[in-house]
């Protein structure tokens, strides 16, 4: 498992943005802090997978001290973002849901320690297992 430092940035009227100093250009955002963390894991996994498929060298993760020694990084809050090197391929999908259902999903997920994606994945697995 690899661990990269992600930097969270938040302006007054913006979503929570996440960037990776070790991987310039890899950025993502979420409307909540939890969503931003989830999106960061997804963006990191997709980017590293793409690099591997293209035969590009994957950089070694920098330490927190190395990242924060750069004055440009000090405006962000550092988080540790992990990616399993043998994890199944993560695929981003778009779904259409009624707004009230999405709101219920988000409330349930937050109250029970899930992310939206994690809750939907677990619900789908349970439904498919119970149907067998």
UniProtKB/TrEMBL annotation:
- Can you tell which superkingdom this protein's organism belongs to? Bacteria
Residues in domain HicB-like antitoxin of toxin-antitoxin system?
Answer: 4-124
Q: Which SUPFAM superfamilies match?
A: Ribbon-helix-helix (SSF47598), TTHA1013/TTHA0281-like (SSF143100)
Pfam families per the UniProt record, alphabetical? HicB_lk_antitox
Q: Which residues cross the membrane?
A: none
Q: Which PANTHER family match?
A: ANTITOXIN HICB, UPF0150 PROTEIN SSL0259
- Protein's name according to its UniProt entry: Type II toxin-antitoxin system HicB family antitoxin
Which organism does this record belong to? Bradyrhizobium campsiandrae
């Amino acid at each position: 498992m690899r661990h990269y430092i992600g930097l969270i940035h938040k302006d007054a009227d913006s979503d929570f943005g996440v960037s990776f100093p070790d991987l310039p250009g890899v950025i993502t955002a979420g409307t909540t802090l939890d969503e931003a963390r989830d999106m960061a894991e997804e963006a990191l996994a997709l980017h590293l997978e793409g690099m591997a498929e293209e035969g590009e060298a994957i950089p070694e993760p920098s330490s927190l001290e190395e990242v924060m020694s750069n004055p440009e990084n000090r405006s962000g809050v550092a988080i540790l973002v992990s990616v399993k090197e043998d994890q199944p391929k993560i695929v981003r999908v778009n779904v259409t849901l009624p707004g009230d259902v999405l709101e219920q999903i988000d409330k349930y997920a937050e109250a029970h320690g899930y992310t939206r994606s994690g809750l939907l994945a677990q619900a789908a697995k349970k439904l498919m297992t119970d149907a067998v």
